[in-house]
Amino acid sequence: MPTTESLVELAKGRHSIYKLGKESPVPDSKIEELVNQAILSVPSAFNTQSTRLVVLLHKEHEKLWDIAADSFKPLIESGTLPEETFKNQTQPKLQGFRNAVGTILFYEDPAHVKPFQEKFPTYKDQFVPWTEHTNAMHQYFLWIGLESLGFGANLQHYNPLIDSAVAKEWDVPTDWRLIAQLVFGKPEAGAQEKPKKPVEERVKIYGRL
Ligand SMILES: Cc1cc2nc3c(=O)[nH]c(=O)nc-3n(C[C@H](O)[C@H](O)[C@H](O)COP(=O)(O)O)c2cc1C
Description:
Layout: H1 4-13, E1 20-21, H2 28-41, E2 51-57, H3 59-71, H4 73-77, H5 83-98, E3 102-108, H6 114-119, H7 127-148, E4 152-156, H8 163-169, E5 177-187, H9 199-202
Antiparallel strand pairs: 1-5, 2-3, 3-5, 4-5
Helix pairs in contact: 2-7, 3-5
The structure holds flavin mononucleotide.
């Protein structure tokens, strides 16, 4: 029987972990099971099921972060990003992600949203924001799910910079919209506890008995 305590424990234990290593606490099959469970159990507005997940492990994961590094080259060449900034800031960060076990790419497939917009014109403008909501739910499920397997993780947004190279490398349909990247690996340093704003300012409860 699942308990509230174990859910709260996972929620409290979730942090952005940036120092990640390549040693995996579980076989890859456990990651696959978790990802499949996310796709099957996370809800979507009107049950559109528009979220798509691409999981890159080990060498394929490393390739992703090499692609990300390469994606910065035109920005450096055009002078948009100073080479020093890339070398001192961007590159070490990307190398940190590369040192991990895997990355989950979160996509939305618009083909599964358009028919609903046509069928329910009253909600037409809500469907795209709702895709962001369901996508974020998948992200959170997998963030704490990976934590439950013994991984640490952090959430990144190198889209749209990496979109076309990634689509080409892994044969991702070009109309899928890349939303986020969740990097995970062996946690090698404790999380930094961040300050929390007071609960009383952020929650209102009426009608409490
Ligand atoms: C919607 C969203 C977007 C985020 N984007 C990034 C990001 O692009 N890069 C990053 O390093 N962290 C990103 N984060 C992580 C947040 O900065 C982090 O969760 C927040 O500061 C709280 O810290 P914690 O995760 O350790 O609790 C994002 C988090 C959320 C929920």
